[in-house]
Amino acid sequence: GELPIAAGFKIGSTAQKGTLKGKNVPTGWELFLAGERVCPCCACWTFFGLGWLFTIIFILFLTRKGSDVFSFEEQAVKSDKIVQEHFAFQAAKGEIPGCSDKGHEKKDVCANDEDCQWDNMRELCKAKEVCPRPPMKPRELPLQGDGGRPMWIGLIYEAQKGGSIFDDDILRHIDEFERKLMTTANGAKSKGTESPWDKDWCTKVYPSGGPNADGKCGPVTSVVNLFSMTESGRDAVKLQVDNGYSRFGLISKCLCSHKDDLCSICTADGSLKGLSMSNGGATPSLDMSQWPQRVRDCLTAGLPQQSPATTPSAGASDGNTQMCQRDFSLDLSTLGVWAVDHCKTAPSCQWAPPYTSRVCSSNGFFHPKDGEGLVTGSEKQQVLKKLCNQSDPLWWSQRKLILPQSLDCSKADKKSLFARTVFYPGQKKENDVNEYKSFEKDYVSGSAGWYRKVQQLEAEVERNSDGKLRIMLYSAATLRSQFLEILYVDAALSSVSMLLVWGYMWWSLESVFLASAAMFEIVFSLPVAMCIWAVIFQQQILFYQILVIFVILGIGADDAFILYDAWMQARFAGPDVMQHWTTRFAWAYRRAFNAMLVTTATTCGSFIIGATSVLPQVRDFSIFAAMVVFVDWLFCITFFASCIAVYERYIAPTSVPAGQCGGPGCCWGCFKVCAKRLCPGLWGLKSPEIKLGEDGKVPIVEKRRMEHFCEGPLFRFLNRWKIFIIIFWALCTVAFTVNAGVQLRTAKKRSPIGREGIDTIRGFEILLDEFSIFGTPTVSVFFGIDKNDPIVEWGSGEERNIPRYAGAEALVSPEGQRQLLNLCRAPDAGRDTRCEDKSCIILGRPEAGRCPGDTALWRNQGIDVPKDLLCLSGRYCFMEEFARFWAANKGNCKGKAQAACVSPDCAWARAENVCHSTADENSYSGLPAAEFVSMLTGTSFAAHLKKRQDTLRALGRGYEADLEADLTGFRASNDGTSLKFAWVSFNATYPRENTVDQANAVHDNWEAFRDRWAGSIKGAQTTDLYLFMVTQNEMVRAAIMGICLSLLIAFVVLMCITRNWWISLLGLLNIVCVSITFLGIMPLLGWSLGENECIFLIAVVGLSVDYTCHLLHSFHHAHSESRLGRSQSALSNMGISVLNSSITTLLAAAILFGCGFYFFLQFGGFIFFVIGFSILMSITFLMPILMLIGPEGTQGDINCCRCRLRKQTKVDPVDADIVEVGKQSQEI
User: Fold this and answer.
1) Sign of the four-CA dihedral 57, 60, 65, 71
2) N or C: which terminus of the chain has fewer CB atoms within 10 Å of its end residue's CB?
3) How many whole angstroms separate alpha carbon 179 and alpha carbon 919?
4) What is the DSSP letter of 1030?
5) Buried residues in 845-854 as b, exposed as e (16+ CB within 10 A)
């Protein structure tokens, strides 16, 4: 194992330079890399500069383009018909014209539009308020943050240790926490003074006593509110109502009491006491003598006989005057009309918690300071009963807002694991754009800020609850910093993983210069590839692509170790190689070049096969990963190769001898000195030592410890136990195959965001799973898009896609109009189609029939609006509104005097003093096609729609106007004679977060709904969920196809490079076993086939081929004829490289186990297990197979063009001892 060093070994020496002979004479390129052309460091600086050049170009490009360079959005599968229909629908619908369109982005344009006004807080144009509100009082409105969004604050409570939120002790701890949180938990101001929440920041409400009245903190949306109506709580509510904190004022004082009884003026069947009908049921008559005396006296003394200026109608004939009336007012003449509506739900008139009663609750009940204690026993059970009563819309809305979807109201013993609280800070000055910055900086942030105080309070209350309650705070002011804190930790761990790789390379290469050069090669391959991808190819960089850095850490380190180990092993390659240092460099470079070419080709091939995927994220990830691997290989064979020459020329000769402090490895030397004394035989701690031969002059070199270990003890162990080892891995592979087949399934739930132990992540997970925080999803049914080819041309954005129209002529016929109305009215069938849970597909009131409308508004304005704000019809349909427009205008009744209101289609309404149409929208049977299109596209219907939007905004329901404008409509043909496109929409019950199976079920259910109700007009239906569904369906197919094709590519590349089918098949067997083993381990880790896992599977072959290819390449090119000799040569030459490479990768991946975000943790686990199994099976499965049945001599070689790749029978000195050991092993 020891060979003399030639005289020309010293770097830079000229001995024998002109007389070099043999096949190892360096080429001009190799001389340039070695510093023998141009200048000694020119090659190193050239490639170092190229790396920085590409990086600087990318940085400049990033500076110019900004965040547009990156994309964190899901990309759609554009080849799928469902996806094409979705984007064709979005393009056909286009931008909704109005104040929020792109034409109104400039302030001066917005100001010139009489229907629009500029919002200074959000810096955008919006529809002008139909009912301008009075000047804001201090903290009357929520504080607005950046972009005009309210600065909400939320709390999530989780009951633990088998408890329930409704348990008395847990409710007491929540009450204790919120009382301190909103009173004594002070925040810090810029001057260092404390600032209690209830003094300086709570949203305030003001009594109706006058404009100068002092306000108080208003109610928060909290589970504690619901159980706060103890005797003390009811006293507080009564006092507040007496002081003007109630919209109904005198009505509340007269009707409400402490008793939980039916309202005293109502009957149990939902009618009003004393109400009778005269004139054949045409005229109502009210006898108040049947009401309690206390109520009569109270109302008679407080209410006027008749309001001087208005009636209780929501829409008066003189415009929007009554709609804009903000204060509730009644008189004795109109009391009966209000009371009839009030009694329909058989309400209780007990003093109630905020938001649970229209009449008997206070808008100023602030539970942290008002009232004491919480209800228990039967009173608590009564509260739970009300919460689960769907016929009481106010209590039911609180149940949906505060309590989770998993609450089972059907059980007698109701339990809930979760609850939430939501409240807001108040805006002190209107349109103060800097106030929220002060709130964040001076009050919330900092070590003495409110957020830190809340964290301390959380910990205190959780300790007091003995671990039964977990509290998680999140808010608009802290959420970004909360997630950034986690991200900073994860980024720090990522940096630590790279530092560990650098540190281990420093340890192994024993040179900080070479370790740093290798890290430059690895790290800079990413920005160079990004530059090519973004600047040259003009593609956006995805989140998954950035994570390629952790993949390349292992692959790049592997290439660096291969090249450096080849340089070190060249010392044993014989006189022909060691005749001069340049021949040594040429021999090492060629050997490493070929070895790295094999792995780079197989890895890139395995990745590049992903370019065939229909999934954009898989395709882009695969192409980018292949690009990074290729760039890293280029850097290794250029920059790192030249760095080895620079190191040997300038740095190595000045180093302190190995094993001493300051020697190779710098400060590692001190550790090595101690380790040598404690354990002299520890492999890997001893650097190659240079000794003198017998003549005392000719130096000899001893191999490194790990090389000795690989070719000696490791080889002998594997050779001795190869049969048992092969059987062991075969059984493991079978077991993992069975486990994967039995347990590995598509994901039943989405991947978690991060570790459950982190409050921010756990709270956000509960929000996503249990509460509706992103609004209600909608499903749209549209008509007029070509089903066979929906898209004419894809644009750079959704608004630039060009749809292919097929026309919506089926809708314009009378039959088509009726069928469209039938589709729109399908939700009125009741619970079969519309409900408030997941048992049906449309979200809305569970009762059958339409939401009762405001009769007065319909008669006055011809506008139909549900009288109950909480009554949800579940659909948005322009055809229904057209039928109402037709009904309102039938008979031309509007504007007629009472004497003229005598036609069969008209009637006079005494209460509203107006002539109105008696037609009903249900009597609409369709118009002739030409007349229908003319009316639909005419100015009268457009004016009707505009009037409806103004009415909704005047009633404080502007959100409905915006939704209707977006979720239903039509587009006329260019000549205006027909419809080319139309759409209607429905509120859906599916959750925002779904598994692929759930998404498929949603699609199937809506397809069945459309087929059932749309009749012959058919159309198509779409929703945002379908983009996710198609992607997930393709993910599993892409993963399976990706693995199969990657394996095929790996086999083909091995065949092309080794030209030996025998070796290639054994290599394929090992890669297949590694892939199967990883598939089998996934269920044991709790993983299923979700989005992350499918991307991992596509990359598993690309990661697992390296070590297999290195060992096979070394086995194939070994100079021994026997399989044992070849195996030992492969372990000796490549064992140290693959082991060092795997250790660096495992270290980098293991650090990611500490990450907070689940994807980083899971990605680290993926790399760790794939690399771990790859190195284990390459060393302990592939090598024993090669020792047992590997080819000998020219077995398996492929003849090509009369040229046969033959092995040299001459034994190279570096393998002399290996061949001898092989022969001895065969004899044994």
Assistant:
1) positive
2) C
3) 56
4) H
5) beeeebbebb
Q: Give me the sign of the Cα torsion angle 620, 625, 630, 632.
A: positive
Residue 978 phi/psi, 5-degree rounding, is: -155, 175
The whole-angstrom separation of Cα 1152 and Cα 491 is: 10
Measured CA to CA, the distance from residue 203 to residue 207 in angstroms comes to: 14
Q: Are 151 and 159 in contact (CB under 8 A)?
A: no
User: Token pair of 304, please?
Assistant: 């006027």
The predicted pLDDT at position 360 comes to 92
DSSP state of 150: B
Would you state the torsion angle of the CA atoms of residues 504, 507, 510, 514, taken in this order, to the nearest 10 degrees?
Answer: 10
Which contiguous run of DSSP H or E holds residue 25? none
* Position with higher pLDDT, 482 vs 148: 482
What is the per-residue pLDDT across 636-681, written as a single tens digit (0 to 9) for each? 999 999 999 999 888 876 555 554 555 554 444 444 545 555 555 4
Residue 1150 contacts residue 1164 (beta carbons within 8 Å): yes
- Note whether 968 and 878 are within 8 A (CB): yes
Question: The whole model's pTM is what?
Answer: 0.81
- Alpha carbon separation from 852 to 526, 799, 867, 923, 1061 (Å, rounded): 62, 38, 6, 17, 79
- What per-residue confidence (pLDDT) applies to 5? 40
Query: How many Å apart are CA 315 and CA 856, to the nearest integer?
Result: 7
Q: Where are the alpha helices (DSSP H) in 117-219?
A: 168-181, 197-200
Would you state the torsion angle of the CA atoms of residues 570, 574, 578, 584, taken in this order, to the nearest 10 degrees? Answer: -30
According to DSSP, residue 417 is labeled S
CA atoms of 594 and 766, how far apart (whole Å)? 53
Q: Is 187 left (phi over 0), alpha (psi -120 to 50) or beta?
A: beta
- Rounded to the nearest integer, the mean pLDDT of the chain is 84
Q: How far does the chain reach from its first CA to its final CA, in angstroms?
A: 22
Which residues lie below 8 Å from residue 1107, measured CB to CB, with a gap of 6+?
558, 1138, 1141, 1142, 1174, 1175, 1178, 1179
User: Does the pLDDT of residue 446 top 50, yes or no?
Assistant: yes
For residues 226 and 247, give the distance between their C-alpha atoms in angstroms, rounded to a whole number.
Answer: 20
What secondary structure letter does DSSP report for 956? T
Cβ 871 vs Cβ 851: under 8 Å: yes
For residue 921, what is the DSSP state? G
- Which tens digits make up the pLDDT trace of 553-577? 888 998 999 999 999 888 888 888 8
Q: What percent of the chain has a predicted confidence (pLDDT) above 90?
A: 39
Position 1096 scores a pLDDT of: 83
In whole angstroms, what is the distance from residue 1183 CA to residue 108 CA? Answer: 76
Dist. CA 709–CA 1132, nearest whole Å: 8
Looking up tokens 């009741």 gives 830
**DSSP letters along 549-614, please?**
HHHHHHHHHHHHHHHHHHHHHGGGS-HHHHTSHHHHHHHHHHHHHHHHHHHHHHHHHHHHGGGG-S
Q: What tokens were used for 351?
A: 């003093």
C-beta neighbour count of 1083 within 10 angstroms: 16
Q: Please state the rounded mean pLDDT for residues 95-118.
A: 85
The partner residues of 124 in beta bridges, in order of sequence, read 119
1120 SS3 class? coil
Query: Which residues contact residue 50 at a Cβ distance below 8 angstroms, ignoring those fewer than 6 apart?
Result: none
In terms of Cβ atoms closer than 10 Å to its own Cβ (0-12, 13-18, 19+), residue 1208 is exposed
CA distance linking residue 676 with residue 17, whole number of Å:
40
Q: How crowded is residue 956: how many other Cβ atoms within 10 Å of its Cβ?
A: 15
Please give the backbone phi and psi of residue 263, each rounded to the nearest 5 degrees, phi first: -55, 130
**DSSP conformation letters of 1127-1194:** HHHHHHHHHHHHHHHHHHHHHHHHHGGG-SBHHHHHHHHHHHHHHHHHHHHIIIIIHHHHHHH---TT
CA atoms within 13 A on the CB side of 1226: 15
201: amino acid identity, one letter: W
